[in-house]
Design goal:
Layout lengths: L1 H9 L21 E10 L14 E10 L1 H6 L14 E9 L2 E8 L4 E11 L2 E12 L2 E15 L3
Antiparallel strand pairs: 1-2, 1-7, 3-4, 4-5, 5-6, 6-7
């Protein structure tokens, strides 16, 4: 389960540097320190005893977003700043202050995530629906995240 939470956090709004369809995000966000509030509904985990599912979880944290992160489309970057090679951003669309895209990962991590990001004056909001297949079982998860600009990176 820690793996699923790490995936949600790491790939919420990440894009590969090469062939980056998310370059359209440049100018929608400013570099600096952000406060993040995430609400996750991890749903029913196949194979877990009743009452042992994690269900709804909340996470609050702060992170510095650099100009390079914005240029690369790495708003919710992973620790190493990279997206696994087996993941691709598909169907990217930008309309006004809202971007939507699908992330598809194959191989060890078989996952599909549909994301919508809306940029507001002091940050952005993102909603994601994710389906992850492990051991022949599909787990559906939802995540809502708010990122609020706090000022320069500390």
């Amino acid at each position: 389960m820690k793996y699923a939470i790490a995936l949600v956090t790491a790939f919420a709004a990440t894009a590969a540097l090469a062939q980056n369809p998310m370059a359209a995000l440049t100018g929608k966000l400013k570099a600096g320190q952000y406060a993040y509030k995430m609400e996750m509904d991890l749903g029913e985990m196949p194979g877990m005893p009743k009452g042992m599912n994690l269900g709804k979880q909340s996470l609050n944290f702060q992170q510095c977003v650099t100009p390079e992160d914005i240029e690369r489309g790495q708003l919710g970057k992973s620790k190493n700043g990279n997206m696994p090679a087996e993941c691709q951003v598909q169907d990217f669309r930008m309309s006004g202050n809202t971007a939507s895209y699908r992330m598809v990962c194959k191989g060890d991590m078989n996952m599909t995530a549909d994301n919508v990001i809306t940029f507001v004056s002091d940050g952005y909001r993102m909603n994601m629906k994710m389906a992850m297949v492990r051991g022949g079982h599909t787990t559906n998860m939802k995540q809502a995240m708010e990122a609020r600009y706090l000022g320069p990176c500390q």
